[in-house]
Structure formats: C-alpha cells, structure tokens
Amino acid sequence: MKTLASYYFLWYLTISVFMPYTSLYFSERGFSPTTVGLILSLWALVSIVAQPLMGMINDRVHNPRTILMICTAAAPLLGLGFYVVEGLAGILALSLFFAWFQSSAGPIGDAIAVEITSREGYSFGSVRLWGALSYALGAFVTGMLYGKFGYNDIFFYYLAASTAVCLVLMFLPAARVTRRRITLFGQMGEVVRNKPFMIFVLSSMLMMMSANINMNFLPLYFKEMGFDKSWIGSAFAIAAIIEVPMFWVAARLSRRIGRYRLMSLASVIYAIQYLTLFTFSDITLTLAVQLLNGIAFAFVAGTAVEVVQGFAAEGAKATLQTVYAAVTWGVGGIAGNAMGGMIIDHWGAPVLYLILFGLCMTASVLFIVNKYHQQPVSPSYMG
C-alpha cells in the first residue's frame, strides 16, 4: 500500500506541473482562447477512443502494469515535441499522439489501484488522498515558479516527474488478472448494453464537464479579471490541499448517505463555487472558493471510481473505468473546451461560470432521480 500511495503522490505531481497551465502555455504562444479551446478539445476527442481501447487491451494482457508503464513513459516524451512543431496544424497533429497516451494512464491506474485496495481491505480514498496532497504542493510551487520564469518549460518538468512515476511502477503490487474470452467488439458491446452504468456515466458527464472547463479556463479567468497570474498555482493548491481530509470524509459520508446523494451534493458545491465566480470579481474571494472546488472533487473522485467498480464484471474493470473517463472527461471535455473558449471570446469569463452553475445544478437533480430508477449489477455497490 505504501508503493501504491507513492504512485499516486508522484502521478498527481506530474499532473500538477503541466495540466493547469496548458491553456496559458498555448495562449502565450499566440493562440486565441477559441484556438486554445480547439486544441484542448482535440485532446478530449482523442481520449474518447484511446481510453476505452487501452482499457480493454489492459484487461486482456497478463500484466496490467504493462500498458500503464507504456502510457506513463510515452506521453512526456511526445510532449517535448510541442517545443519543436510550429503552427496550429503541427500542434494538432502532435496532440493526437500525446493525448492518446496521456489520457489513458490515469483511469488504468485507478482500475489497478481499486482492485488492489479492495483486495487488501483498504478504501480507495486512503491512497488517492496522497495524490491530492502532491497536487497541492506541486501546483503551489510551480505556480510561483512559472509566474516568475514563464510557462515555456512545463513539458520538461512533466518529463522529469514522469520518470519518477515509471520507477515506482516497477514496484507496484500485482493486480488480479482475469482473461476475457470475448472479442474487443463484444467487450465494448457489453459496456454499451449495461444501461445502469451508462445512465450514471451520462449524469456524471455534466458535472465533470464543468470541472474540466474550470481547470482549463480558470487561468484565462485570472487573465481577463486582471488578477496577478502568480496566484494561479496557489488557487489550484488551495483546492488540492483540502482534498486530502475530504477524501477521508467522503468515505464516511458515502456509507452514511449513499454514493448517489454524495455525488449530488458534490454537484451543488461545484455550483456554489461557479455562481460566486460569476457574481463577484475579487482575487481573495476567488482563492477562497477554491476550497469548494477541492471538497467537491474529493467527493466525486473518491466515490465515482468505486461506483464504476461496482458495475464491472470480472475482467472488465479497466474497461469500465476508462469508458467512464472517456465520456465524462472526453466527451465532456470536447464540448466544454470548445464552448468555453467561444464563450470567453464573445461574452467573457464570468458568463462562462454562470453556465457552469446551470450544468452542475442539472447534474445534481439527475443523480437523485437516477438513484431511484436503477440498480447496479454488482452486489458490492452501496447506493
């Protein structure tokens, strides 16, 4: 479990050093907010195909860590290519390959982790919280670093942190392997016919789409509001540091009120944050409401993975985790990033947050409605 905790600590450290700053990286290279949204939407589009396919392959190999290792090593190496290619066409072409590996690693790692933690009698949140801690530390340090020296080196830092992740993966405990006697198309068909799972995924997409938009466009919100951009890293760090105790709280709330109600509560908390950003233009308040972002994310991240695990049959755990990520972050990311860039261009960042408020309130209602209209396929699920 220490090795698994180390993996999450280092994995989310890699995310913290580049993901929150990609919009600023491309913006400072001269691309408009609409074009930045197009680039990030392409990343999300690629993930829709990459994540389920890599998940299904992962479920069929003898050693599930193999695909995770390949993705962890390939993504940062491809990321260095952004320093070489010029023009939008080159950026988009490279993005196809970069996003394929970068987007697949996270959900595959979650599938392996939740299998190990359930086997050893631990909650998934007890190891996932180490990722929240490292993300907070990484975002805080890199925010100050990039604010002073610029955002041009984010992919070099990503490569350095990913190298440490690859070393830890060599010592990661083995997950149980169940070979599927079914074709890849048959395996995908099983997923699509799992209606309770698909309803949960579509409900989650509205909420996670708003979280994706906020993560990618909060830096541009800072820029438009005239805030000191050196505080961007602190904003992400504030959200991440509160996640650490909230993962512990989420595990207990889940048993007390049920997982669907906890997901609904997370949607409401997100909505309050976005309504505040729409209503007020104050750096102190903007930083303060990042606490709400961290609380909501911890409730979702610590709960959704276990809900999806409850829907998964043996030999399909990585498949369902990657399908969930592909739809919520992939499809949601495509629509959200494209929409976010255009809204900022035409109406400004505050209007974007008003729309995110509406999305989250809708998701909150859907989670409550869905709770009473579906039952999972696994008896281990707690609704």
Summarize the structure in words.
The chain is mainly α and 383 residues long. The protein has one domain (2-371): Growth Hormone, Chain: A (Up-down Bundle), CATH 1.20.1250.20. The protein has 15 helices and no strands. α3 (33-60) packs antiparallel against α14 (317-346) and α4 runs antiparallel to α7 (154-169). The longest helix is centred in the N-terminal third of the chain and has 34 residues, at 87-120. The radius of gyration is 19 Å and the shape is globular.
Summarize this entry quickly:
By secondary structure, this protein is mainly alpha-helical.
Write the topology of this structure.
Elements: H1 2-18, H2 22-28, H3 33-60, H4 65-79, H5 87-120, H6 125-149, H7 154-169, H8 184-193, H9 195-225, H10 232-257, H11 259-279, H12 283-288, H13 290-311, H14 317-346, H15 349-371
Protein name: MFS transporter
Keywords: Cell inner membrane, Cell membrane, Membrane, Transmembrane, Transmembrane helix, Transport
Transmembrane segments: 7-26, 32-54, 155-175, 196-218, 230-250, 262-281, 287-311, 323-344, 350-369
Mean pLDDT: 80
DSSP strand content: under 5%
Helix content: over 70%
Largest sheet: none
Number of E-state strands: 0
Rg over C-alpha atoms, rounded to the nearest angstrom: 19 Å
CATH superfamily: MFS general substrate transporter like domains
By CATH reckoning, the class would read Mainly Alpha
CATH architecture: Up-down Bundle
| CATH fold annotation | Growth Hormone, Chain: A
User: Which class best fits the helix and strand makeup?
Assistant: mainly alpha
pLDDT < 50 stretches: 375-383
N-to-C series of helices and strands? HHHHHHHHHHHHHHH
End-to-end Cα distance, whole Å, is 27 Å
Tally the helices: 15
Described by the principal axes of the CA atoms, the overall outline is: globular
Number of domains: 1
Subcellular location: Cell inner membrane
Main location: membrane
Pfam families: MFS_1_like
Protein name: MFS transporter
